[in-house]
């Protein structure tokens, strides 16, 4: 066990910049040890973080942060950055309620230039920062650090296209580890392989010399630096890459675990009068045997045993049930296609991918493309099922509307991680998809609570719906289910005491908590009834009508109040001239921060005790 002798002394990147070169390898091993230690307890994105230790050190050494700006893409790899920017003492709190976020947060530190969590934003954000600096006469540098998979997201290319036109003192660091969460896919990934292995690179030396000679003072100085270090220069190669065609000067590929080589490249990049792309090659999981061997598992992992690399096995989950169902129906129905935007393992489509190669599409981090592509498949008679996390579906708002719903194309969306997701925090909570889709015509939404309901809803979606249809389900495994509850209808069920004057209406995961609340209330002598909606859009009108007889209705919704199903339910009740009282408990105009799922549910008053208390104490 290390006492983190060097790391604990670094209170800011300024301290790092003063550190003797010979201490850097020891610093990097301390960082790796701390990363493994923290993630083994708190869970987190281990493999990506292990891969960028030297890169992060080289960046903070070469660029004068926070005067110079570093913008991290996704931000799941920013733990070392946090440790080097005055947050080492808090790193043990990462992803915990009230602790450091697992992603960059402007509110957390002046070194976190831009919030992230979703991919492919860094180039656009950094370009905006850079142009703002230009307008203000600030001559500092702006660096976007982006992974090879995030680079393929549409917005990166939009940003890159613009940056090539006018950016200055603007550097994109492409961190190429050949991996997304799974293996990186697509033409760009293939292209990078070519760039990496092609033997006939034009050595960068001549190119750099030409560039620097054009810049009189700084140029000759830089040239001396470069000439002194021919070994390093030889490693940097230049070829006529696609990046150059976009107006960028390309440096690379550079060993992303060699601080000296990277520092030289960054110093050289600073001298270029225009945007530069520095291509670094790293190993995801570097320095921890288990993560190097299996970076997919260690991309995002729950707590694990450092000695064995084992993490408590997750049992059957909604995602795995979804994946099994997909394999079952695809066997006899050749129209079924499975689509993922780089989340195959997360959404449970790995087995489908193996069994039905020609009908499986990992489109890379490209949610917008995934939806419109599904529209195209549907237009020619296929039944596309796009499995996507609720939070990432937000990316495809217009595609869902314009390319699917408006054309009444039959596309099925499996919305995984619907509702609160926990430690990833506000960027990842799945609490906006319902209000987003609720306003769309030609759209059906199911939100089951149990595995059985998920399969039934998928069946409805695939075989009994002819336009845009979403089936949403939470992160994790099967939920608490009362022994006497049986799911009868695919649209809605009543459970509990129908003769009560109090009704809870809910859907999805919260049905389970409401059932526990029902038991608490029963013990206290209060009987209630629960309306469990499975189909939440269009609302089953029979269910609304049957609710009219209850004097008091509580609508519990694990989603945003604005645009909620509760508000739609309220409108339907008003249409029917309901005279009772409806109270809506939903998420009221705020973002839900990182904490465990149960902590968040409690904070939002969605836990069984809060539900029971609300009903008992409400007058
Ligand atoms: C819009 C969006 N879609 C999907 C994800 C999920 N996701 C997080 S990291 C990641 C892979 C990123 O790969 P890369 O950028 O190469 O970084 P690496 O983890 O390899 O360092 C994915 C797909 C996301 N964060 N944002
Ligand atoms: C950074 C990112 O967006 C993903 O890695 C995400 O954290 C995965 O979440 P799950 O753990 O729910 O699969
Ligand atoms: Mg990668």
Any overview of this molecule?
Homodimer. One of its GO terms (molecular function) is 1-deoxy-D-xylulose-5-phosphate synthase activity. The structure is a single chain. With 619 residues, the protein is an alpha/beta fold. The chain folds into three domains: 7-293, Rossmann fold (3-Layer(aba) Sandwich), CATH 3.40.50.970; 318-472, Thiamin diphosphate (ThDP)-binding fold, Pyr/PP domains (Rossmann fold); 492-617, 3-Layer(aba) Sandwich (Rossmann fold). The chain is 42% helix and 16% strand. It contains 27 helices and 19 strands. The strands form four sheets. The protein has a seven-stranded mixed sheet, with helices on both faces. Strands 1-2-3-7-6 form a five-stranded parallel sheet, with helices on both faces. The protein has a five-stranded mixed sheet with strand order 14-16-15-18-19, sandwiched between helices. α6 packs parallel to α7, α18 (367-379) packs parallel to α20 and α23 packs across α27 (608-617). It is globular, with a radius of gyration of 27 Å. The termini are far apart. 1-deoxy-D-xylulose-5-phosphate is lined by residues 45, 74, 76, 299-300, 346, 417, 421, 424, 475.
